[in-house]
Every structure is written in structure tokens, then in C-alpha cells.
Amino acid sequence: MHMQDTDEWYTSREEKYSRIVHAEMNALIFARQSIENCVLYTWPFAPCDRCCVQMLQAGIKCFVFPAALPDIKARWEESINRSKKYILECGAHYLEIPRGEVD
Length: 103
Description:
- About 50% of the residues lie in helices and about 15% in strands.
- The chain has about 100 residues and is an alpha/beta fold.
- It has a domain at about 35-100: Cytidine Deaminase, domain 2 (3-Layer(aba) Sandwich).
- The chain has a three-stranded parallel sheet with strand order 1-2-3, with helices on one face.
- It is globular and about 40 Å long.
- It starts with 6 loop residues before the first helix and ends in a 6-residue tail after the last strand.
């Protein structure tokens, strides 16, 4: 059984955040195989720090993502910076693609 997508559950921000799984975690759950030494590509910005920790623990060695747009940066910059720090601390690496190259 899976969590169902129901409009009424996702119109409330509190209810939505209680129920959702970020795309990175969803991919990890559905991979159903080792992702050791794999590359993680995310869009439209880097994984949040909580997802990044999970991906590093699962063995991701390379993260590829575009630079965050200003509106995203305003909300997610601290989390993205923590993700970058964790990636480097774990001996993995990341490629942040400048915006003009990915839009």
C-alpha cells in the first residue's frame, strides 16, 4: 500500500508536510537495489540537508544539481549549504551547474 495523493490532504501545509516524502527519498525507496557509488541528479536545486544525509548513508558519491534560483535560494540556502558541507565531509563530490547552462 502507498500513500495516496488526495487534494484535500495537500491543501493544508501542515498536513502536506506530515505526509510527503521528498523525491530523493522516494527514489531511494523505489530503487529496491543498492545505490552505492551512484550519481544523484536533482532538479530544480540541490537536495535538502535531510535528504542529502540519507543519500550519503545509502552510498551516493556524486550529486549533480543546478544553482538555485533567487526565490528558492531565499528559502533553502541554509539547507543547501549544509548539504554541500556534508557531501564534502563524507568524501563525495558535487557539481553545481550554473543556471544559464540548464534552463
